[in-house]
Write a structure and sequence with these properties.
Number of strands: 18
Radius of gyration: 23 Å
Oligomer: single chain
Number of helices: 12
Strand content: 25-35%
Distance between the termini: 54 Å
Length: about 400
């Protein structure tokens, strides 16, 4: 009798365990741009807690994201620049569901303040027209009166790990534009050493390189004479292998490695997500925009810059306005595109991708403001919702 009772209890427990467990967890595989990795990595556990599903993300560069979606190796790819080539699969669209700045990182021993750079100076540095840190152009950018926006913040409740926390985030208006509290004005006079500049670039096919070189081309076309390209060396306006450049232009694969190389190279300058400055104890520059206002690489400046973009409803890409005179804009801000399909053969995967992209858009930047990814709202949010609805 005891044995029968125990059997019944075991059967009832098994039934209840099936009811309590998720009906069927879907595991997604994605990969591509290193630019998106900080927010996707931070949000992974939160998404699993929310949905019962999971995803892995291979941070290998935008080129890998494009080839992965082309070959069907990934359920979703990721690329910082549009994937509009002939190899893109039929039914693929772009989702600009994350946005963040590309930061200019530097390792300049002895510098006595944060570096400020104008578009022309920055372009001439990466073009190797300026080769010393105490060049008159860099000194002029860092010995002048500087105007900088101070953004208004609002205290916001977020939930991470099942725990409620409060954080201050930049306040937005109804159109998704950051609200400026006031501008600060100060005179800077940054000491700069007589030190060679070492340019470090991404050796792999990188959307981050595409973001940088597209900006340099738009900012100073008389200096950056080639079109932007995901391959930095293909966009470089001179002979990258010239004798004068030996040892002064170096490369590494991925944001992790270029920032690590910069950290051990005195005089280095590179470009990567701001997160890598903190991880590698590197400085990051404020950039002057077209209104001659110096803006930090951050979520607010990125939102201001993207506010002037126009949308391509067909494929989900954006047209960035590098000529905007918005005084709040950080001109190296960018979206990064999830590459998804409107015609997945497996409809369970389609539903899971749709759910993941909605969570990334709605929750990830809000829950992890320390990543400096912008909360997408206003017209860009509505644009993304229309695109996500097409996943199927």
């Amino acid at each position: 009798m005891v044995r029968k009772t125990l059997s019944k209890v075991a059967i009832i427990a098994a039934v209840f365990s099936l009811i309590a467990a998720p009906a069927h967890a879907v595991n997604l595989v994605g990969g591509g741009a290193t630019f998106a990795n900080p927010i996707l990595d931070a949000c992974k556990a939160e998404y699993a807690r929310f949905s019962g599903d999971s995803y892995v993300y291979n941070s290998l560069g935008s080129g890998a994201g494009r080839s992965g979606i082309d070959k069907g190796d990934y359920d979703f790819g990721w690329s910082d620049t549009p994937h509009t080539g002939s190899t893109a699969p039929a039914g693929m669209i772009h989702l600009p569901v994350v946005a963040a700045p590309v930061a200019i990182l530097y390792n300049v021993p002895g510098i006595n303040g944060q570096l400020h750079l104008s578009p022309t100076t920055l372009t001439r540095i990466f073009a190797r027209e300026i080769t010393k840190w105490n060049d008159p152009a860099i000194k002029a950018d860092n010995a002048r009166n500087v105007k900088t926006p101070l953004f208004e913040t609002v205290r916001t409740k977020t939930t991470v790990g099942g725990q409620t926390t409060f954080t201050n985030v930049v306040k937005k208006d109804a159109k998704g534009n950051p609200v400026v509290k006031r501008y600060t004005q100060k005179r800077i006079n940054t000491r700069l050493p007589n030190l060679d500049i070492v340019v470090i670039y991404r050796a792999d096919s990188s959307g981050t390189s595409g973001i940088l070189t597209n900006y340099l081309r738009a900012a100073v076309p008389t200096v950056w004479t080639k079109n932007g390209n995901n391959a930095f060396d293909a966009s470089f306006p001179g002979n990258i292998n010239a004798p004068a450049n030996i040892g002064k232009i170096q490369s590494a694969r991925g944001s992790e490695l270029v920032s690590a190389l910069a950290a051990k190279t005195p005089g280095a300058i590179t470009y990567a997500e701001k997160d890598y400055a903190t991880k590698n104890n590197l400085g990051f520059a404020k950039l002057f925009n077209n209104a001659d206002v110096a803006v930090d690489p951050g979520a607010a400046g990125t939102s201001a810059f993207l506010g002037s973009a126009t949308f391509n409803e067909t494929n989900g890409t954006l047209n960035l306005d590098y000529k905007t005179t918005n005084p709040l804009a950080y001109l190296l801000g960018s979206t990064s595109y999830a590459l998804v399909l409107t015609n997945y053969p497996n409809k369970e995967k389609a539903a899971a991708v749709k759910k993941l992209m909605t969570f990334i858009l709605d929750e990830c930047a809000k829950r992890f403001p320390q990543t400096e990814f912008a909360v997408i709202d206003g017209p860009l949010y509505d644009f993304n919702k229309r695109l996500i609805a097409r996943i199927g």
